[in-house]
Specification:
Elements: H1 5-16, H2 21-37, H3 41-50, H4 56-60, H5 71-82, H6 86-103, H7 106-115
Amino acid sequence: MNANVEVLLGQVQERGGYEMRQEAAGAVQSVLEVLGAHLVGDDRTDLASLLPRQCGPLLTDVRPASGPLTPSGFVEAVAERDDIDVTQARRAATAVLATVAEVADDWLLRRILTQLPPGHAGLFGRTDPA
């Protein structure tokens, strides 16, 4: 299911409590770019294929990260990328990743979470896989 970008932005806007659609779009861009840098292979491309076509390149056209990030490091990377505070970055990360979790099936989400260090599931609104 390749969701319409306006639907995705609306969900992120609602989850993140953003007043403007542009704020939600900025959150989507930042979070997907940070996430894309930490995923490899089919998991990244499979997720990109489920997102609106405008969002796929945000995951796939980024340089791979030099190392893994803890969940707090992930949030800090979003904060640094957008020059915002950690609270705003956490709001962006959880709004976008929870929306992404709804698009991905359980199997793909599990594969994504196993690529990330433990603790990231909470950012996706889930519990860590066993």
